[in-house]
Structures
1.
Amino acid sequence: MRVKDILATAHPTCSLEFFPPKTESLGVELDSALQELLPLKPAYVSVTYGAGGSTQDRTYDLVVRIRRETGLPVISHLTCVGSRRDQIRALLERYAANDVNDILALRGDPPRGQAGDTPPAGDFNRASDLVAFIRKEFPGMGIGVAGFPEGHPETPNRLKEIDYLKEKVDAGADYIVTQLFFDNRDFYDFCDRCHLAGIRVPIVAGILPITNRAGMVRMAELAAGSRIPAALLRSVDRCVDDTAVERVGIHWAAEQMRDLLHHRVAGIHLYTLNSARGVKRIFASLGITDASQLR
Ligand SMILES: Cc1cc2nc3c(=O)[nH]c(=O)nc-3n(C[C@H](O)[C@H](O)[C@H](O)COP(=O)(O)OP(=O)(O)OC[C@H]3O[C@@H](n4cnc5c(N)ncnc54)[C@H](O)[C@@H]3O)c2cc1C
């Protein structure tokens, strides 16, 4: 079953995101997170991808391994910046041969040192080009795209933001997964603006529990454009140590989820950062032992 079919029939979904580990010890951490989290029965999982192909093989290996060992639908993130059509085609053929049928089609960001006005040479300028390519050459692939409730930092204004997002949907995307956000009002407003623009595909909300101060700072850099509300910052400021920060972050994320479920969101995508702890505590706070109980 592809993710778009799951979103159509078994919502609200709860899905989990992992990244491919770069070292052996991080690989051990990931394996232990997977062992603890898969019994929570996520509807599907996704695996991130280094822009410009920096973790391409690791992403491929992890996606195929999870798919083979668990039978779960697995979304492979795929960035197109700096890539050629033949490279992307070859990768997608390998995925299809391994029964991986879901791609999150992204532009990605130019590798460090190439930021600015000189994008690396490649056949794709934007995610919408990648969506159109996949839709044409791999019609059986399910395709998700990224959405930014608070706006993408490079987009000149919020009206254009939704126009560009609609281009991705019109090119063939089946659903949208959002950048993480901490204020649900931003997400609801984003959904309303999508609806006004005629976007009718499911919108999956990206949620990240803050678990320590350093992680919060790193997250602010990686998810540029995501605002940390003053109420959350004030609570974090009061914390005496990272144990307290974790409690605050998990409580905040659980409350966000509770409210999103109340508003009948299509799905919630949890950024796990390859750690089981935050997700398990959120589930405990929601009073559930596995994700199927959200329906
Ligand atoms: C859920 C999610 C998962 C992600 N996973 C990864 C990952 O695994 N690996 C990774 O490297 N990055 C990942 N990213 C980050 C993403 O690659 C960056 O945010 C990137 O800068 C934008 O990607 P995009 O797919 O939204 O690009 P696009 O949709 O192509 O947008 C990129 C920029 O181009 C502008 N634009 C789009 N269309 C037009 C047009 N017609 N005319 C003019 N301007 C236009 C947009 O407004 C935006 O500013 C993820 C982001 C999200 C939200």
2.
Amino acid sequence: MTETPGRHRVLAGLLLAGVLGACSGVQTPLDPMGDHAARIAVLTWVLFIGGTAIFVLVMGLLVFAVFAPARIRQAFGTRGFVVGGGIIFPTVTLIALLIYSLGVSRAVVLPMSDNPLRIEVIARQYWWEVRYPDEGEGAVTANELRLPVGREVELLLSSADVIHSLWIPNLHGKMDMIPGRVNRQRMRADRPGVMRGQCTEFCGVQHTLMAFWAVAQEPAEFDAWLARQREPIAPPATPEQARGMQVFGEAGCGACHTVRGTEWQSRLGPDLSRVGSRLSLAAGALDNHRGTLAGWVAGAQDIKPGNNMPAFGRSLPGDDLLAVAAWMESLR
Ligand SMILES: [Cu+2]
């Protein structure tokens, strides 16, 4: 039999890739994008490495206690060893960890600046409304949290129905969103990137499909995006888009959705003024393009059964579905 050269190296490589793979990515606390998340990541590693070291030590002592020569084993039975290893060591270690972790808990809620950008996030079954209340008329979007790199943001977290919880692991820890109160969370992204966030408090049947994207952008890019969100929509550019806009009105979509610059101003569903530019649809359930837009409108109850948008697959003919999808795709 010939030895396959490098087989062990391949295995070791795969193992290493697996371990390192967990340390970078769009939804992991081990790849911090900002200061708060970095402190939480260090705490994680201290607990993990410290816990592993103590576990290995205790298991080693256990092996000694069973197999070592009687002379050594006797040492384990002395009062000094029991008091030292059983009471003093755990007490000192746990108190030290408590002080350290309380310090981290405090550091991650302290303000970093006097003038954070305020962003309201309102959780609903099963999507996120995102509002930028400062400056002028304010901008509104959904299922996407854009923030400027290098500037602290203060999230004002609330809920319009049941308890939800927001977690963007690359940026910060979890924070509950409770009806009737506003919880605040401050964070700062130190480099540009796209991160995934997720609802982390069971809120109903479609809780799993309640995610969102957080996008950290260079300040100039962010400002341009924000300014764009405040503008009314442009008139349809093609006959198909114009038909789509008409279908939107006839089908009653405006009873739940806002489109900036039109008569449709309801907040029961996501603001659709710039829906074509979003990274995903229906809180991360679908990628965003003309096909998925048509598919969502036709089959919203098959894609997210029990969500608050009715399906229009039976009531709208195919051409109308495609037209409304074309119009929404053009809303950028
Ligand atoms: Cu949830």
